[in-house]
Every structure is written in structure tokens, then in C-alpha cells.
Amino acid sequence: MRASILEEEQFETVLAYTDGMERPAMYRLMVTLTKKLGLRPIELANMDTSWFSPNELRIPAGKSKRGKARSLPMSDEILSLLVRHMGEQTGRVFRNAKGEVFTANGISEAMRRLYRLAGVRGSCYSGRRTAATNMVDRGVNIRIVQEFLGHSNLATTAAYCGVTPNMLRNAVFG
Hints:
Elements: H1 8-18, H2 24-37, H3 41-46, E1 56-59, E2 70-73, H4 76-86, H5 104-118, H6 124-137, H7 142-149, H8 154-160, H9 165-173
Antiparallel strand pairs: 1-2
């Protein structure tokens, strides 16, 4: 089953729900990284503070799905959320309640549970699909979206993107 593409209000509902959770800063950072940077569960599970710089997030080779390195632009919002979550700590960014590093499956399950508890049909990949769809909806070339997602095959990127009413309107009426 494909992950849902969400509206901004649905993300706001999920983010508001995190405020009442244990470790709200961690969950807010997780959701934001999937929504803004389209990160995969494996990338979140492997994430280390050393990957962050003021201008970019550098995912090292071997830490993503296909093992390829990639860089994504960084925002002040994400850096602020990272500091709120990590404080002065360095190292792995996401750990479970026992202090152990999350696995990719652990990240996926935590996100699925978070969405369910917030009353929104979604998953870790909802942020990724929504980010890709929103980029295409804004007129971003699909090759750039492909690079952003780290896909080697353009068909995979096309499959990630949904069709919005705005896309249909622009296709029909220009």
C-alpha cells in the first residue's frame, strides 16, 4: 500500500500531537525531516549529528537505501529542532525509550503509531511522498525531485508523486 499524501493541516495535527508525547522534540524532528527533506526511515535511523552543517545535510555513503551519498539543503527550522532535541549531545540522533539507536523498522513503526494516535492516516513515507508531490506541484523539474529523493530511476520518482487538483487545473487550463 502506498503512503498517503497529506495536506498541511494533517501535518499540523500530527505535529500538535507530538507536543503531548514523551520526547516531543524527537518526534517533531522526525516528522519535519520526512516532510521537508523526504528522508527515508533508514536515513533517520542512521542519522548522526555530524551530518548537519548550517547549509546542508550530508548523508554519507552506506547510510542510505542504495548506499549512495547525497546532500540536501539545510534550514534554520531543522537546525533549531535538532538543537531542541539533542541539546549539546552529539552522535546518533534518534534513540528509542531504552536509549538504543532506532532501527529503520523501529523508526517506521514509531511514525506509523504517531500518525495513528494523532488520527491521521499516514506513515514515515507520507512525508517523503508529500514532499515530492508538492515539489512537482510547484513546477520543480522531476529530475531535481529525483536527485532530492536519491532515486537512481526516474520512474521510481514519478511513482512517488501524486496528482493534485492544482496540477490538473494547470494541465488543462495552463
